């Protein structure tokens, strides 16, 4: 079936897409951002837990994802009544979460982070320094390793939080010791 559509503002022939978007397609991140924007706006206008559950279910059906209440948590503000908390948990079948928590390896905390909040992230990376120190890498290899692997391990949390100076100095010292 051939139908007319607008192509660069002028009428053109519609061409169907048979294969969909593949991994690595340059359009993939853009389409994901558009879908996330729609989801965010729908959540903003959701008036109760049933509507929110319908939105999440509909959103999950479109790309074939599954909403798993067993892997999900709901976080409430301090002003939310216990009645509302219980209703939301019952309707959505989601357990409440508590702060601090970890999401994708990065801690989620209230307020400015302290050393104790980010120490676990730091402590996960330091053993890698010790393993690589004894390897037979050249100086250039060790520098490349520090720049690419070690610093990228911290990037996610550094984009969200301003790290305490104490941890930054410890990280710098560990990186220098490796080189």
TrEMBL record:
It comes from the Eukaryota. This is Reverse transcriptase domain-containing protein.
